[in-house]
Design goal:
The chain is α/β, with parallel strands linked by helices. 57% of the residues lie in helices and 7% in strands.
């Protein structure tokens, strides 16, 4: 069905749809890329810059602090040591994307390109759902699909590749070339270069296609072609990662591995953070509680209304519906095997690729509502979605404010002009932002780390050292008038640096204590 026909009947509906469709292009203005260089985002920037400085031959992190910390024990960004190299746990493929854009467009180019990929993802999904404004409205405003895809470029790129491959498969007729189906499977597999968990979604799709459609000779050819392309793509990825990192699932899997294989009954905190919320982050259903109702309906629907063991059902189910079912099934598999993302970060990005399927299942649920209470239930469901729209708006605002806050921290670095930056929590390396490669920085979390680092690197070689201390570690002993009293971290610094260093500047912020220690001339 071609745009703007079908369900876009009125002028206002068309205008609303166009606004939703082009909403990704507003995000570089709402969340300015130059203000997003902190935490994981700074780590991805560091990886991309390192790939470029290595001439695209290696992902070995180029850190200004390597001369002071060759073993990488105090790496200021997340890193894994493999042989003689310090490797980022973020996808190497993402580093190459950053490295392509950074020299000529800076960080802005990365986020603009990601915005365009999200818009194209909207295009694929809108065509598949006959330009349904309700589908796009739920996905864009009442789910974290847009904010996740933009804010985390690896998520945006991975979802684009997966959806592009699925779109190619679903829009190809039975008479299409076998090569087309192979390419569609290969494109879906390519998403795993950016998010390793995305492997689960094409596997689940193949599983559902095989259960419902494999007996159909024409469909069997499509399924085999898609499966061959997917297995070829995944096999290539696993082989390359094994050669480079010694593990087929790569550095991110190694980074998360300790919590991957815990028994489910030992992962309640992870599940709670992933699905509902934890003290620092909101989870998948915490963001979109309406999707919990969708999940419960799906379980009833798949076992009682579309039972795969009833042959009569198979011919009535479209491949698009199987795409929806497989996305929710993959969601449940990923939740059970969830790593520590539920505790340390925003849970929905780990489950991001299931969002189009949840939205599609929401529409199926609406179609299957009983006539008696249809209007009341619809009002209730859309009221719940309005809460999620509010969350989307609030979350964007929070991220924008936090981005501006980090920009102000960058200004402190420029004012102080230190020779070394010491952070107690890695997140606070954000003070360097785009200036990260100008000054060495190290992560010294405990008093023992301070003594060990400066025993190997004589303090006399530094004129000024800027320290960023987390106030969470000193809250119990914090003296509002003088936060340096009974401050063990500061005491350890003073003792280790010796009497030649004096505190010349400090700023007591909401969550950090920042101060400069300068050597006497």
């Amino acid at each position: 069905m071609s745009f703007p026909g079908g369900k876009l009947s009125s002028k206002w509906t068309k205008l609303t749809f166009c606004f939703l469709f082009f909403l990704p292009l507003l995000y570089p203005f709402l969340l300015k890329p130059g203000e997003q260089l902190y935490s994981d985002h700074l780590g991805k920037f560091i990886l991309g810059e390192s790939v470029g400085r290595n001439g695209f031959l290696s992902g070995n992190l180029v850190l200004p602090s390597r001369d002071f910390d060759p073993e990488g024990n105090y790496c200021p960004t997340e890193c894994i040591r493999i042989g003689q190299e310090l490797i980022s746990p973020f996808p190497a493929a993402l580093g190459y994307v950053y490295a392509v854009f950074l020299p000529w467009s800076g960080i802005l180019g990365v986020y603009v390109a990601t915005s365009i990929l999200i818009l194209l993802s909207f295009l694929f999904l809108s065509i598949l759902w006959d330009w349904d404004p309700i589908y796009l409205g739920i996905l864009a405003l009442a789910s974290p699909f847009l904010i996740n895809g933009y804010f985390f470029p690896d998520v945006g790129i991975a979802s684009f590749l997966f959806l592009a491959g699925c779109f190619l498969f679903l829009r190809s007729g039975n008479s299409s070339s076998l090569v087309k189906f192979i390419i569609s499977g290969f494109i879906c597999a390519s998403s795993a270069w950016f998010r390793i968990e995305s492997i689960v979604f094409p596997l689940s799709f193949i599983f559902f296609l095989s259960i419902y459609k494999f007996s159909n000779v024409e469909e069997r050819r499509k399924i085999l072609g898609y499966s061959l392309g997917f297995l070829t793509g995944v096999g290539l990825l696993l082989w390359i990662q094994f050669v480079l990192y010694g593990h087929p699932l790569g550095p991110r899997f190694s980074f998360n591995q300790p919590t991957m294989f815990l028994f489910p009954w030992k992962k309640w905190k992870i599940y709670a953070g992933l699905l509902i919320a934890n003290p620092n982050r909101i989870g998948f259903f915490g963001y979109t509680p309406g999707f919990l109702i969708v999940l419960l309906f799906f379980i009833y629907y798949i076992f009682f209304k579309k039972n795969p063991f009833k042959k009569d059902n198979a011919s009535k189910i479209s491949n698009k519906d199987l795409f929806v079912y497989s996305g929710l099934a993959a969601f449940m598999v990923l939740v059970i095997s969830a790593p520590n993302d539920g505790i340390i970060d925003f849970g929905s990005r780990y489950l991001h690729l299931s969002l189009p399927a949840f939205t599609g299942m929401f529409l199926i649920m609406l179609e299957n509502l009983g006539q008696k209470f249809r209007k009341i239930v619809k009002i209730l469901l859309f009221s719940i979605l309005l809460y999620s729209v509010y969350i989307s708006f609030s979350y964007t605002q929070i991220l924008a404010k936090y981005g501006k806050k980090t920009t102000k921290l960058n200004a402190i670095y420029l004012e102080q002009k230190p020779d070394l930056v010491v952070v107690q929590i890695r997140t606070y390396s954000q003070i360097l932002g785009k200036y990260f490669f100008q000054t060495p920085s190290v992560w010294l979390m405990r008093e023992g780390h301070i003594k060990n680092f400066f025993s190997k690197n004589k303090p006399e070689q530094f004129r000024k050292i800027l320290f960023i201390q987390s106030k969470a570690s000193i809250l119990e002993n914090l003296n509002d008038s003088d936060p340096f009293l009974k401050n063990k971290y500061y005491e350890s610094i003073s003792q280790t640096l010796g009497p030649d260093f004096k505190k010349v500047w400090s700023e007591n912020k909401e969550d950090v204590l920042i101060f400069s220690m300068e050597r006497k001339k």
